[in-house]
Amino acid sequence: MTAQTQAPRLEIRNLVRHFDGRRVVDDVSLPVRAGQVTCLLGPSGCGKSTTLRMIAGVEMQDSGEIWVDGRLVCDTVYRVPPERREIGLMFQDFALFPHLSVAENVAFGLRSGSREDKRARVAELLERVDLLRFIDGYPHQLSGGEQQRVALARALAPRPRIMLMDEPFSGLDNRLRDGIRDQTLSLLKEEDAAVLLVTHEPEEAMRMADEIALMRDGKIVQRGAPYNVYTRPVDRKAVSFFSDVNVLQAEVNGALAETPFGRFLSPGVPDGTRVDIVFRPQHVRLDFDRQGSGPLPTATEGVAARGVVTRARFLGHESLVEFRMDHDGSALKATVPNVFLPAEGRVMWLTVRRDRCFVFPA
Fold first, then answer.
1. 209 contact partners, CB below 8 Å, separation of at least 6
2. What is the band of 290 on the pLDDT scale with cuts at 50, 70, 90?
3. Alpha carbon of 60 to those of 74, 82, 92, 258, 334: distances in Å?
4. Rounded to an integer, what distance in angstroms lies between the CA atom of residue 32 and that of residue 12?
5. Could you tell me the pTM of the whole model?
6. Are 223 and 271 part of one and the same domain?
7. 328 and 286, same structural domain?
8. Is 339 domain-assigned?
9. pLDDT at 291 over 50
10. What whole-number distance in Å separates Cα of residue 105 and Cα of residue 95?
11. Mean pLDDT in the chain?
12. Which of 45, 64, 123, 289 is the most exposed place for a label (fewest CB within 10 A)?
């Protein structure tokens, strides 16, 4: 049985939760399979953490069901206690017990087995996170990154079938974060846990997820593989959540939207409809050579439009150049690899990759 055909390890069905008369979780359904990392991605306050707390059993839903391996664990009548759900939890505050040693922290969730068996499991996990040398040390002797790895080992010690992670890396500085994320992901895959990771950072979701569930205002608005969610966004807000965007406004006539960058196909959109044509700064091409007169159309990039540089900044691996467009005075951003810092006031011609644009009703 393949990962796609096997029953979900975790499945939530039509979860609803109200606070102060407002639906903070609104009919959320989501499957997560063994060995799969699903990222619940969205802005702060969209209902991600509330969903996680209901799955963990620390908060009750108003309606909906939670299933584990095809077995109901919670609806509005029946409820398996949190400690019997075989669910591991990791949060942004590592919550290690300061008065317990590293070994005692990791062993805290082990409820069965001999003292020797528990010690062996603790040593195995600490070795896998490269912290065996600290087995008899205490949390205050560890760095933030090391404490995070101890918290991961503690969560995995009972071999949970499901791991819930709520912004677990947000307390780490950028230099540590990537390495610890990769190590965590590798360990979770080895354990074959079904992982539901809550994050508000698109880069983290793209890096870690097998599947992204994009959440907004209590609802999942789009779900799919990271590549598909990024390249086939459901609406303008979905595009802009992942990156800066440029927006052209136009009106459709004959299934075409006329812009200073040429015509854009708008199939199925009624004539007279106002649309937003959305594209990312990396899909703007700058013409470094053209000095002058008229725009030259190309098949992929359409028509060139004239802009005036208002600001340019080097961002480390690319440069961000901002323009004021001649046709309507609007602002437009372009990113260029490496260092490119044209002077303010320089005139340049710009084209847009038509195959990288998204057309949405305004």
1. 37, 38, 39, 41, 197, 226
2. low
3. 9, 11, 22, 52, 47
4. 9
5. 0.87
6. no
7. yes
8. yes
9. no
10. 10
11. 90
12. 289
